[in-house]
Amino acid sequence: MGLGLPRWLGIRAQVWGALLPISLLGAGLVVESELARVRVHARRAGCSLFLDDIPAGKTDSHGDGLIQNIEPTDHYIHLDCPGEAEQGFLVTPHAGKTLDLDAGPSAAATLTPEQAAEARLKLEPMIKEAVELRSQGRLEEAVIRLRELAKLDPENSDLHRELGITFLLGREWRRGRVEMLEAIRNDPTDADAHNGLGYALEKMGNLDDALKEYRTATRLDPDDPTYRQHYFDALSKVAVKQVEKTQKKP
């Protein structure tokens, strides 16, 4: 349940966002000039690349990799090289441009589990301060504060979930989706993050995947009525769409 903060999904925004996944390029729904590319300079060959939660190939013999057809918004690129700790990078590529990402070997020391736990305890009051800014409607300030904290502890699922909530309250569905994915990547048992991801997907028109996330949230925390309500609401919408589709058939 993260930091045990008040529920946020009672605020039901009325703006609908359209989902433009990479796979739609071939369907002609997204033109190439609207998409972006990221060239990853890892300086190590054979490293696996991931765009958010999607595998995106490996680095070549020169240690470089190219990720194409990227929607121009925030993304996390993960680099998994054999024998090394995974690295993550926040990028914001621009439409029609190629962003060069320096993803060379990290010189940062790896924290022990005890050190990581201690660092997160120290961050909790600062996360709550950012959430207080958000509760006052100061969303941009909250994002800036949470981004700064995420640099100190990039694997903190609480931070990414709170960033995701902030973006969703600002009706930035795609950015919210990316942060919820990052929270889940770092803690697959985070029910709030699965619920938030479902909400983002629902607002983006992807009801099938939203249902899966709401179902996961309910399974992880069956005592929370909010998750069940979101699941049943989305299920009803799917049923209505299926009826409408049946009625349209000749």
**How many domains would you count in the coordinates?**
2
CATH architecture of the largest domain: Alpha Horseshoe
What is the name of the CATH superfamily of the largest domain? Tetratricopeptide repeat domain
First-to-last CA distance: 48 Å
Whole-number radius of gyration? 19 Å
Q: Let me know the average pLDDT.
A: 85
Strand order of the largest sheet: 3-2-5-6
Can you tell me the CATH class of the largest domain?
Answer: Mainly Alpha
The structural class is: alpha+beta
Global outline = globular
Low-pLDDT ranges: 1-30
Largest sheet: 4 strands, antiparallel
Strand content: 15-25%
Q: Give the SSE order as H and E letters.
A: EEEEEEEHHHHHHH
Structural write-up:
The chain has two domains: 34-102, Immunoglobulin-like, CATH 2.60.40; 113-237, Serine Threonine Protein Phosphatase 5, Tetratricopeptide repeat. It has seven helices and seven strands. The protein has 250 residues and is an alpha+beta fold. The strands form two sheets. It has a four-stranded antiparallel sheet with strand order 3-2-5-6, covered by helices on one side. It has helices spanning 113-135, 139-152, 157-169, 173-186, 191-203, 207-220, 225-248; strands at 36-41, 48-51, 54-58, 64-70, 75-80, 87-91, 98-102.
